[in-house]
Amino acid sequence: MKKLILLLIIPFLGLLITSCNSNDNPVTPTNTKGNIYITSNPAGAQIWIDGLNSSKTTPDTVKDVTEGVRNITLKLTDYNDTTFTLSVTAGQTSVVGPITLVSNIYTVFYGGQPIRIYETAGTDTTQPSGLDLSSGMAYGVSSSQKGLVDIYYSSNGYLVQSADLYPGLIRVTKFFVGSSNNIYDGVDSPDRNTGTWTTGISDTETNYVFLYDHDGHYSKLRITGQGGGVPGIPAWVEVQWYYNETPLDKRFK
């Protein structure tokens, strides 16, 4: 009888021991988070993940990102948003970059070889006096392309001035003298409705000038040289400028 009771008790004790062992060694939860380290050129871009701002800016590491395919967006003022996908692996740090950001300021630079325009008096068809700011082309103020002229070099006072001041031309351009002669300084134009805008500048102006033309485009121009103005040689100036292709956009970074 004692043997029978013992045989019945042994299986029960085995179940009890197994149950105790299970409670003493719970299963460790699986890590489902990873990290992302991102750099960009230029730096300082906000890092957004799946449409949410991580509050981090490049270069930096965003920690505890749920594993899987994530949508990453980099945002920086004056640059287009840059979006890409990234597969995040739990327990690992994904390294991305440098990501090159694309500027959303669309400017064209004219005058790598400075463009020469001549005074209006005593010149011929080979010595154009006016400029089309949008194309970088020089035209005579009496030529068949005169309707494209935005500014011209006048013999009357030796001024570079708005085209509408020449008889028969209609395109109006406003001038605002800047604070330095470094056209590459990245300074933006003041708004056309603020400050002192004029109809022209002297050919001896050493600072660059901002322009606002007939079509609502801003430019940034400087006189790089001058000459002539003696018998048989008309006066001339050479200029270079940035032209912003987006109407009403004042940025020149």
Q: Would you count the extended β strands for me? A: 17
Please state the average pLDDT score.
90
Number of discrete domains: 2
Return the string of H and E elements: HEEEEEEEEEEEEEEEEE
The strand order across the widest sheet is 8-17-16-15-13
Estimated structural class: mainly beta
Helix content: under 10%
**Shape annotation:** elongated
How much strand?
A: 35-45%
How many helical stretches? 1
Uncertain runs: 1-10, 15-22
The description of the largest β-sheet is: 5 strands, antiparallel
Gyration radius from CA atoms, angstroms? 35 Å
CA-CA gap between termini: 99 Å
What's this entry about, in short?
The chain is mostly beta strands and 253 residues long.
Which helices and strands, and how do they pair?
Layout: H1 2-24, E1 33-41, E2 46-49, E3 52-57, E4 60-66, E5 68-75, E6 82-88, E7 93-100, E8 107-118, E9 130-132, E10 137-139, E11 151-154, E12 159-162, E13 174-177, E14 200-202, E15 209-212, E16 218-227, E17 236-244
Parallel strand pairs: 1-7
Antiparallel strand pairs: 1-4, 2-3, 2-5, 5-6, 8-17, 9-10, 9-11, 11-12, 12-14, 13-15, 15-16, 16-17
